[in-house]
Amino acid sequence: MLADSSVQSEALNSIPALLARNVEKFGARTAYREKEYGIWQSWTWAEAAKEVEDLALGLLGLGIREGDFVAIIGRNRPYFYWAMVAAQSVGAVPVPMYQDANAQELGYVLGHCGARYAIVDDQEQVDKILEEKDSLPALEHVIYVDPRGLRKYDHTHLHQYSHIQQIGRAAYDEFNPELERRLAKLGYDDTCVMLYTSGTTGKPKGVVLSNRNVIESSKNSAAFDNLTEEEEILAYLPMAWVGDFIFSIGQAYWCGFCVNCPENAETMPTDLREIGPTYYFAPPRFFETQLTSVMIRMEDAGRIKKWLFDHYMKVAREVGPSILDGRPVPFARRLSYALGNIFIYGPLKNVLGLSRIRVGYTAGEAIGPEIFEFYRSLGINLKQLYGQTEATVFITQQPDGEVRADTVGVPSPGVEVEIRDNGEVYYRSPGVFVEYYKNPESTADTKDAEGWVATGDAGFFEESTGHLRIIDRAKDVGKMADGRMFAPKYVENKLKFYPNILEAVVFGAGRDFCTAFINIDLNAVGNWAERNNIAYASYQELAAHPQVYAMIQDHVEEVNRSVAEDEMLSGCQIHRFLILHKELDADDGELTRTRKVRRRIIEEKYADLIKALYDGSSEIYTETEVTYEDGRKGRISATLEIRDASVVATKAKVAAQ
Fold this sequence. Notes:
CATH architecture of the largest domain: 3-Layer(aba) Sandwich
Strand content: 15-25%
Strand order of the largest sheet: 4-3-5-6-7
Number of helices: 21
CATH topology of the largest domain: Rossmann fold
Number of strands: 28
Number of domains: 3
Structural class: alpha/beta
């Protein structure tokens, strides 16, 4: 049965209030699972509520005040979701952070919000905080879940998570009246969570979201896709990302469904198969990597198996999406598809862990049409949404039966969307953030007095369907020297449709033609090299191989032919390119923690390479500083080849000035 939408959400005015409702309605149902040491452990809603209560009481024993900020740092584990709800229960504000952030990045966020408490996973996170402790005068207590390696540390302000819960249980009579008082005070417009942006163009900003933002967005989006307490999700994306917060706390608590936490990133594919989620989200790169793995395995398959796969995938591409959307398909083709489901689609979905998907979403970047249609042809209801942290995720979603690869859907329930004269997308909704913490100037620049928020993206609505199409980041859309439109992400996304290309950065604003940096995908290209008897000893050596360059050139030129078909963007064809000698890396500041390109940093760091792309050079020697896994700095050098790519002649049309 559907989570009771007849209940006014104002009566359920906080996440702790939803937790109490779930204990009453679903107390014996499984709320959380976590795999540890290869074994799944489970907690019911009633048991989860007790874990939250014990931690909240323990935090009161440590002197937590209303309005304090509590940093949450670790992988997806029930303990950290409970920690966020416990912080809310005592009137504090949880601030989830990226577990792979380095000490300096954590130090900036901890210092900016003035966190008094940090609840972390293990010794690694404790060490990063201690490295920055001298610059964090507000930080008083660090609480860790995993005690391994921490026995000989100074425990004056360092506490084990389970010990804090034990203190809470022991002092129940002392602290429960205060806990009840604080719970009763929680209101719809109180702060629910603070999430930091990825910092694409500068320092991360703290996005303040209220209970109203989170609960209304969760309620509306759950109704859109008919989510119920029967759903199963796999919580594996960073807890610092707004999507995980909405899926694993907002919607999970509104609907009462189960949140499953994998053992670690390495076991995630196996854990995905074991759980078989019904509601699922993954960024395009995950689906691309999965498909690359499938195609690599099929290249190595026997002749009969390969023939069956190719034959039935052809059938799937022709009729699968129509069957999924309920459109008429001839009986013979339905029968052929049913046989394909027995021999190919069913086993493949089972191997991928996607057998039970009822609703699946992807977002963050554009997904390749071929990749998108591949999954839908298997009968997986994969859709796209468009959102932001500042929107509490949802701006547009694709309704069932109206799913396409080139749009991001219609406005989500309760959301108004309009396109301003400059082509920028604006929205207004109950999910619109409260403010950027300690940054009234940026708040005013982003959100106007009437609540309209500038997305920073350029797009338009299709007249025939009412669906929104996103072109690029508005600040990145520019003009070339001859006045034609320049939209780098449009071309970059087309390049990344190829499994061999991991990342691409396109240049061309104010210039006569476009050029590009390419990162190869080591897994895909490495497997291709193995099948073609190409020896290599490193990423750098493989990236520089002439046959790899020839393969990437084919991809670039195919993209050029595709771009040339779009009259408005035909000037964005790539004339020259090079393959970088290293992967762009968040640790080197070139990407955000959510793998978004930091263009300004790349343009500054690789200015010599960009210059060579435009001065006619056929090669360029360069040295680059890199950060190793242990945090040490080093330098690598390489001589990079620069290649010309064929372009399609088009009639240049100068954009209106």
